[in-house]
């Protein structure tokens, strides 16, 4: 492995941490602003959820393809291009005149995000040797959680004082700062799969399968929902079959077949995000609709979880360089189960201290899980697959987040229906929140076994 200078390592780490802050900051800010967006555009709960979900869907669709494109043509090119797309689309979102325009440009934000996330961790893994990689990944993931922690608080203040559009406006100068730093400081290029061809048909089938599955999930329990999900799963199976047959697949399925650490670490990530991402979405509804808090105060409570995540992720990353990541990640998953169980018992009289305590437990669990799990994935593959590995773990994250939102959307549609949330349906909303948390507890318990099943890391 090529030895890189300290200045190069520093530039790569700062570039990755800057961009790792931006997209989660936007995601968590928007969750707190959804009620305000809903009031301005007269959107029901199901339509509001698509403001978050369409961004995740676009990110998930393009993460693996852009990870592969980065491996072939250069990770820095894709990284910088994605940052530009993300920054410009943030500005355009702030000028939205209706829900259709907002959701449309959230798609472009998702595409830009996929280009950034599919390349950032791969660049870190290209530059840092295995003995230092966990610490660097931990700092990067800590930056993700810093964005998540600042999002509800700053987003709540901005929404309360200046309106939800100010969140998108703030992302524009932050994006420009990141673009300037990458151009001036991150020198070099990384394309360890140079010369390979991009699997166009595989990319197409992969994207279509995700769209069909997510659309179907949003339409359950209607017949069109079942039909769309069945079609999506069928296309996904065709995609997997074809990927096993070609020499340069967009997603190397064989990485899953012969590499239990890679396979089960990705499965654990998928389950963990499926069980946790919609927590902020549901609690934002709970705090603003049931407890009648304004966005700023709700954000002050929701900040508890990501602050803990940001604090402990670098420590967990460093530990994973020395201790088997399976042990640390499984402890983290177990703590996540405990935090979710506490949220199952929410009701109209629950104290804010109880909610904060549950969020702290969740934050600690997620911090102990995520950095070691990502380090395990990135350390389990050859260098030429680092872009695909980074994109794969990112895809598990995004698909998990989509499934989490899909579960929440499905439960809300069953108990509340496709209507605007009002005092007369607050009881049904409270029921849907509790049922969602019960489902997430069951998922996370399964995730503990997936985390343990990966086997011991080879050091």
In short:
The protein is mostly helical. The protein has 17 helices and no strands.
Q: Would you spell out the secondary-structure blueprint of this structure?
A:
Blueprint: H1 6-41, H2 45-73, H3 75-93, H4 99-127, H5 130-162, H6 165-185, H7 200-219, H8 223-243, H9 254-257, H10 260-276, H11 278-290, H12 295-302, H13 304-320, H14 325-344, H15 352-378, H16 386-415, H17 426-453
Note the overall shape. globular
User: Could you give the distance between the termini?
Assistant: 16 Å
Helix content: over 70%
User: Can you identify the CATH superfamily of the largest domain?
Assistant: MFS general substrate transporter like domains
Which class best fits the helix and strand makeup?
mainly alpha
Beta-strand content: under 5%
pLDDT < 50 runs, ≥5 residues: none
Mean of pLDDT: 81
């Amino acid at each position: 492995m090529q030895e890189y200078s300290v200045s190069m390592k520093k530039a790569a780490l700062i570039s990755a941490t800057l961009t790792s802050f931006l997209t989660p900051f936007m995601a968590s800010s928007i969750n707190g602003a959804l009620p305000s967006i809903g009031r301005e555009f007269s959107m029901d709960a199901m339509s509001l959820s698509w403001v978050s979900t369409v961004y995740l869907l676009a990110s998930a669709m393009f993460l693996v393809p852009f990870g592969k494109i980065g491996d072939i043509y250069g990770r820095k090119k894709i990284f910088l291009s994605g940052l530009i797309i993300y920054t410009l689309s943030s500005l355009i979102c702030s000028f939205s005149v209706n829900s259709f325009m907002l959701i449309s440009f959230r798609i472009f934000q998702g595409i830009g995000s996929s280009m950034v996330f599919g390349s950032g961790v791969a660049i870190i893994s290209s530059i840092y040797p295995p003995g230092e990689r966990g610490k660097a990944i931990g700092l990067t993931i800590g930056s993700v959680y810093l964005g998540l922690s600042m999002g509800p608080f700053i987003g709540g203040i901005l929404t309360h004082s200046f309106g939800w559009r100010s969140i998108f406006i703030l992302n524009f100068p932050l994006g420009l700062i990141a673009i300037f730093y990458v151009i001036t400081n991150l020198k070099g290029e990384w394309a360890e799969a140079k010369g390979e061809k991009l699997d166009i048909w595989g990319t197409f089938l992969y994207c279509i399968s995700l769209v069909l599955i997510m659309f179907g999930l949003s339409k359950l329990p209607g017949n069109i929902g079942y039909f769309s999900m069945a079609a999506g799963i069928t296309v996904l199976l065709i995609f997997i079959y074809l990927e096993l047959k070609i020499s340069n697949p967009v997603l190397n399925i064989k990485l899953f077949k012969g590499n239990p650490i890679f396979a089960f670490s990705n499965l654990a990530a998928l389950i963990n995000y499926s069980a946790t991402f919609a927590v902020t979405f549901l609690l934002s509804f709970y705090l603003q609709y049931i407890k009648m808090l304004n966005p700023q105060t709700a954000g002050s409570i929701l900040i508890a979880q990501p602050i803990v995540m940001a604090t402990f992720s670098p420590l967990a990353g460093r530990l994973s360089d020395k201790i088997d990541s399976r042990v640390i990640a499984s402890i983290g998953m177990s703590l996540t189960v405990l935090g979710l169980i506490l949220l199952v018992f929410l009701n109209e009289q629950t104290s804010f201290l109880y909610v904060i305590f549950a969020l702290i437990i969740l934050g600690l669990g997620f911090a102990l899980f995520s950095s070691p799990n990502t380090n395990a994935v990135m350390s389990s593959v050859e260098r030429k697959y680092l872009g695909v590995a980074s994109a794969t773990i990112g895809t598990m994250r995004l698909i998990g987040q989509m499934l989490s939102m899909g579960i929440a959307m499905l439960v809300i549609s069953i108990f509340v229906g496709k209507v605007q949330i009002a005092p007369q349906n607050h009881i049904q909303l409270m029921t849907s929140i509790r049922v969602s948390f019960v489902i997430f507890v069951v998922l996370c318990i399964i995730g503990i076994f997936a985390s343990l099943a990966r086997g011991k890391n080879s050091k």
